[in-house]
Amino acid sequence: MIIEKIHLYHISQRLVSPFVTSFGIEEDRHCLLLSIQSADLEGWGECAASYFPGYSYETVATAWHVLADFLIPSVLGRDIEKPEDIEDALDGVRGHPLAKASLDSAVWDLVAQRQGISLSQAIIKNDSSKARQINDFMIMFFSRLM
After folding, report:
1. Which one of 39, 40, 100, 115 is most buried, counting C-beta atoms within 10 A?
2. What is the rounded average pLDDT for all residues in the chain?
3. Angle at 106 between CA 87 and CA 81, to 5 degrees
4. In this model, does residue 113 exceed pLDDT 80?
5. CA-to-CA separations, 116 to 36, 56, 111, 112, 140, in angstroms, rounded
6. Between helices 128-145 and 119-126, what is the axis angle to 10°?
7. Is the CB of residue 36 less than 8 Å from the CB of residue 107?
8. d(Cα 1, Cα 109) in Å, to the nearest integer?
9. What is the pLDDT averaged over residues 16-36?
10. What pLDDT, on the 0 to 100 scale, is given for residue 75?
11. Which three-class secondary structure state does DSSP give residue 114?
C-alpha cells in the first residue's frame, strides 16, 4: 500500500483547569495530529509534544519542523505492508521520539484498517507476547472503570 498523502495539524485546546507541574502552568494543551492516506484508507497519529520544552526537548514547533521537513518526506510515497516498513526512514533522524511516534502510530492504524482488524488486534498479531500482556492489562483496567 502506497503512502499517498500525509496531512499535519496543530491543535490547541483550552484546559478545563490549569495543569500545574514543577515545569510551570499550562492553560492550553497543544499537540500535533497527522493523517496518512493510502487509497481509500486514512490512519491517524498524535504527537504529544508540549508547547514548552520543560518535560522534553521536543516541542510542538520542533516536532512540526522535524515532521514536515525530514520525516514526512522520507515516508511519503513508500510502499508499506507492515509498520516496520518505515523504520529505516525514521532512523535517518536522530532523536525526536514523539515526532516519530506520531508517524508510527498512524501507520499502525492504517495497516490495521487494511487488514480489517482493530489496532489492538494488529499489535497482538505483530508481537504476541508483549502485546498480549499490554492488551490484558488494558482490558482489566478499563473493565474496572465500567
Report:
1. 100
2. 88
3. 55
4. yes
5. 17, 36, 9, 6, 24
6. 150
7. yes
8. 13
9. 90
10. 95
11. helix
The CA distance from 23 to 26, in Å, is: 9
Q: Of 71-75, 78-82, 93-97, 120-124, which gets the smallest average pLDDT?
A: 120-124
CA angle centred on 100, ends 95 and 104, rounded to 5°: 145
- DSSP 8-state secondary structure symbol assigned to residue 84: G
| Amino acid of residue 10 | H
Class of the CATH domain delimited by 5-115: alpha beta
Q: Measure the CA dihedral 52/56/58/61, to 10°.
A: -10
**Where are the chain's structural domains?**
5-115
* 59, 51 contact by CB (below 8 A): yes
Grid coordinates of 35:
493523517
Average pLDDT over residues 26-43: 94
CB 30 within 8 A of CB 60: yes
Other residues' Cβ atoms within 10 Å of the Cβ of residue 11: 11
Cα separation, 117 vs 109, in Å, equals 10
